[in-house]
Amino acid sequence: NVRKLMRLAAEFESREGRDLRGLLDFLAARAETDAEAQAATAAEGHDGVRIMTVHNAKGLEFDVVAVPDLSRSLLAGARPPLLTLGREQPPRVGMQLRRLGAASVNLYSYSELADEARERDAEEGLRLFHVAATRARRHLILSGVVRPQPNAETKPSTPVIERIVAGLGIDRESDSAVPVPAPEPRSGLEASFEPSEIAVRANLPSPDRAAELRRIHAGDAVETPQRMGPPPLVQRRPPAVPNRPLSYSAIAAFEECPYRFYMERVLDLGDGSDRGSGRAAAEGATGPARGGRGERAAQGAAVHSLLEWSAVNEWREPPEEMARRHGIAVGLDPEASEALLGPLRAWLGSDLLARRVRGPEAEVRAEVPLLLSVGGTVLRGSIDLLVERQGHPPLVIDYKSDRLGDAGPAEHAGRYETQRDIYALAVAEARDSSEVEVAYVFLERPDEPVLAALGPAEMVAGRARLAAAIERIELGDFPPADPDRRNWDLCRNCPALGRTCSGPEAA
To answer: H-type helices in 230-319, by residue range?
Structure first.
């Protein structure tokens, strides 16, 4: 469970950035989606029968519990992988070679590792049965089909019902009772208990029993008067888009290509990394750098964490050893510390930092979380740097690690209009300000910040643009981007590329 949480957190951070509140909302929404089929089991005070998995029954207790299908093999549905690794260090290796028209060949320690895996799977199945059986307070019903003759030996796949019948010595041919001795009271406890027994009912196959099961009770039908009102259960139609919190990067992804948004953020296909242009993927990516955009994303994440440290340490330059550790944490080469410190030094020497950020009169906060309600939908995110000075509008500073190339910072900043609107609206509402300044600082050229002042008119227009984008998402229409807008920067690593979408036109 901890490893799964770590994996989900890493995927969320690579997609949305470092946002603890957003991660908690995402996990809650995902848990709600996964457990929706069992939601009705939480209702109390009814006479119905609750059907749930053993995992969902953990921590619960009921007066009567029935555990069916105990004749199912403990290894049903399990297939050993072609490549297996042992759990020791260094691990043993096993491989199975499949051949057409001939028997498979087990290489190295494959047979031993496969046997160990079957043993572990069987033990887990028995633990789950123990959980199910211990949910009962008063009455436990166990059912399954047993063989007429006992098995010669107990194997990992031996069903639970066969183990119970063999362990208790139950008669397979007739009804019986298994005596249970009275439990002994704890030392010092003045109490006595009566012995009990486990009732066993054998349902033997016979022609009479088969005829009884086939009998149709047509004459017993009773006409039921029709009643007015809603039906007791209504089939729920799930929304086209999961009810999960939206972020700037999610809206930006939808505006770039609705179809890719659908594949990655609705169907959860792909790994959520290496997104197209105009997104915040380079800001908050984690995990090993994979070269190209993956390496740039990892470098951007490390630079952002170092900038955050510098902001809360009086804008000092981080030590080289710290930069090296931050680089290693995101999968960069240990020798990449200089590449991480270079952009940070450029920012520390910039005019914007000296004029608008430094100084005792400025209140500066780094990594400020934000929530913004638009059209009944909550948008979330975080601000790299929020600067407030008496008599001046709040200033939002957002670091960008984009590669500028031949384009200038102003051209690149045009891609972040949605993010700018969210920043301005959230800060204006939180600080009760009629004007907000947003500055994009491209770390390749921090002396050329792109500043924009947004007043009431710009904020009204920005809210309208956000509401329109959210409405299009909720409509559930996800067409691919127009062919003339497709390029490899947008389409690279898309799960639909080459499958359900042709991608960019060939040059």
So the answer is: 248-256, 258-261, 293-311
Q: In sequence order, what are the beta bridge partners of 372? A: 379
Judge whether 358 and 399 are in contact, CB under 8 Å: no
Determine the Cα–Cα distance for residues 402 and 250; give it in Å rounded to an integer: 18
Contact 266, 242 (CB under 8 A): yes
The alpha carbon of residue 224 and the mean position of all alpha carbons in its chain are separated, in whole angstroms, by: 47
In sequence order, what are the residues at sequence separation of 6 or more whose Cβ sits closer than 8 angstroms to the Cβ of residue 184? none
Whether the link from the prior residue into 156 is cis, omega within 30° of 0, is no
φ and ψ at 246, to 5 degrees? -95, 155
CA atoms of 421 and 454, how far apart (whole Å): 9
Encode pLDDT of 356-381 as tens digits: 898 778 888 888 888 888 877 888 88
pLDDT in tens, 218-274: 556 566 666 666 555 545 555 555 555 677 788 888 888 899 988 888 887 765 444
- Hey, how many other C-beta atoms are within 10 angstroms of the C-beta on 462? 21
335: DSSP letter: G
Residues 6+ apart with CB under 8 A from 116: 86
Lowest mean pLDDT segment, chosen from 136-145, 282-291, 302-311: 282-291
What distance in Å separates the CA atoms of residue 399 and residue 304, rounded to the nearest whole number?
8
* Beta strand 377-389 pairing with 246-247: parallel
User: Within 13 Å, how many C-alpha atoms sit on residue 319's CB side?
Assistant: 3
Give whole-number Cα distances, 19 to 16, 194, 280, 283, 384, in Å.
Answer: 7, 59, 13, 12, 11
Q: Where are the alpha helices (DSSP H) in 134-276?
A: 160-168, 207-214, 248-256, 258-261
Q: Which residue has the tokens 């921090």?
A: 446
**Can you tell me which residue has the tokens 């060939």?**
506
Between the two ends of the chain, the Cα-to-Cα distance in Å is 47
Q: Are 424 and 462 in contact (CB under 8 A)?
A: yes
